[in-house]
Design a protein that fits this description.
The chain is built from 5 helices and 10 strands, in the order E-E-H-E-H-E-H-E-H-E-H-E-E-E-E. With 188 residues, it is an alpha/beta fold. It has one domain: Vaccinia Virus protein VP39 (Rossmann fold). One of its GO terms (cellular component) is extracellular region. InterPro entries: DNA_methylase_N6_adenine_CS (IPR002052), RNA_MeTrfase_RsmD (IPR004398), SAM-dependent_MTases_sf (IPR029063). Its EC number is 2.1.1.-, 2.1.1.171.
């Protein structure tokens, strides 16, 4: 079990998948949201939670005022845990899409998001994450001002952000590194 840190569901516990996932620690999640909310008010934002795992990042965003979160998770057991967590918390605005992150991002959208949260398994190659970041921009997921946060192991190669993103200072918490960037201009 882990818990929601802040907002209307703050302090409530949520389930985590039984094996094969590495939920973001409370400390890292709290720091992540402190960094983002120092620059952006979450109220009313549209959020994309990639490699959602337990859904903790997206649920934290909903608890703190985001209008909507699209959770993307390929593992069926993890997706079932996300669905149960959404129901247990009773937060509106949650949509769960079961499927591979690369396929969902490649399919595109006509509704860009304001915040992208990505916590890929540490064994996902940095080049694959780089490709996802590039596809977000070319497939309509981002707009000027979109913020992206990617959680990686400190042992993983740093990300190569596509043109049009301004990196924010990265943060390191033990063996976890947060890489953040802001979209400078609309999709091309």
């Amino acid at each position: 079990m882990t818990r929601i840190i802040g907002g209307v569901a703050g302090g409530r516990r949520i389930a985590v998948p039984p094996r094969g996932t590495r939920p973001t620690t409370d400390r890292v999640r709290e720091s992540l949201f402190n960094i983002v909310t120092a620059r952006r008010d979450l109220t009313g934002l549209a959020v994309l939670d990639l490699y959602a795992g337990s859904g903790a990042l997206g649920l934290e965003a909903l608890s703190r005022g985001a209008a909507s979160v699209l959770f993307v998770e390929s593992d069926q057991r993890s997706a079932a845990v996300i669905a149960r967590n959404i129901e247990a918390l009773g937060l509106s605005g949650a949509t769960l899409r079961r499927g591979a992150v690369a396929a969902v991002v490649a399919a595109g959208t006509t509704s860009p998001v304001d915040l992208v949260l990505a916590d890929p398994p540490y064994n996902v190659d940095s080049a694959d994450v780089d490709a996802i970041l590039a596809a977000l921009g070319t497939n309509g997921w981002t707009r000027e001002g979109t913020v992206a946060v990617v959680e990686r192991a400190t042992t993983c190669a740093p990300l190569t952000w596509p043109e049009g993103w301004r990196r924010w200072p990265q943060r390191v918490y033990g063996d976890t590194r947060l890489e953040l960037a802001e979209r400078l201009f609309a999709n091309v």
